[in-house]
Amino acid sequence: MDAVAGTEPVAAGLPVRRVLLTGATGRVGARFLPRLKQLGAETRLMVWSPGPGVRRSATMIVGDLADAGACRAAVEGADAVVHIAAAFQGLRPDQSEDVNFQATRQLATAARDAGVRRFVQLSSSLVYADGAGAAAEDTPVRESAAASFPAAKLGAERALSAVRGLESSVLRLAFTYGEGDPHLAEAIGWARRGGTGRMHLVHHADVRQAILCVLSAPELPRRVYNVADDRPVGPAELLAAAPGFAVRGQVEEGAVTETEPGAQPFGRVLTAEAIRQELGFAPGFPSIAAAAEKGAL
Fold it and tell me: Between the CA of residue 274 and those of 23, 25, 200, 215, 228, what are the distances in Å?
């Protein structure tokens, strides 16, 4: 799945061998799953319904995260959980926050009770309030969100923080792109229609690297890490980096679309030094221009 060989460290001796992954049919999860398998991890999937790219198997649990029994079955024997799934399509923001709070609380509680060693929750920079400037991990998040996707991530984060006794970490991702992800086409659409400010990006290869950094860390010195590349870009820079990337206009599971007020990524910049200094994260694609030069869009 890697677009360019050598952009991700080989995590030899990954200390967790049995990993439960939620959200394997979404944009981030579908690109992370092959990396787990490449590293030899015994991977179990929990999905609401198998997507076209995911085949049923003995290691797949089809069930609702709000179902405590399904969560207990999913985490049984797992060393780690990577929780990417979020429910937001067709939900109001208040419904989305509540649904994801309940689902994540069930999963995290089941993981703690089963003795899971590490729980990684993928979140989004969209949880930070508009106009927050360069948001660090201790920048206040929104009280509520105007769009269902950031509301879903807020709900999941709040649920995880309420579950004590579980070694866990939250990765707040900048705008993800690369390896054909239609997110980039959506961002270019915003840029062409007059997006203002800068946006921070992170390539899927570096999202995978960040997850592996957390899974491999001997200890987690903090619960929240921002994950972003080295160079936020404005609309003109974004268009220059990917001039031929057509706006597809398609919506996939896991998409943050321009039809969601408050979900647009322009004007959001992250301070992402903590994960570099504490866990050794170093973007293989420090900018979208670097990714374009390597043919990794």
Answer: 26, 29, 16, 16, 11
Tokens 């509680």, located at residue: 109
Which residues is 21 bridged to in the sheet? Answer: 45, 82
Is the distance from CB of 183 to CB of 255 less than 8 angstroms? yes
Other CB atoms within 10 Å distance of the CB of residue 174: 25
Domain 18-176+200-228+270-283 has what CATH class? alpha beta
User: At a CB cut-off of 8 Å and minimum separation 6, what does 180 contact?
Assistant: 297
Q: How far apart are CA 288 and CA 245, in angstroms?
A: 13
Strand blocks (E) in the chain? 18-22, 42-47, 60-62, 80-83, 118-124, 134-135, 168-173, 175-177, 201-203, 224-227, 269-270
Q: Would you state the pLDDT for residue 131? A: 67
pLDDT tens figures, 19-78: 999 998 889 999 999 999 899 899 999 987 655 555 555 478 888 898 999 999 999 999
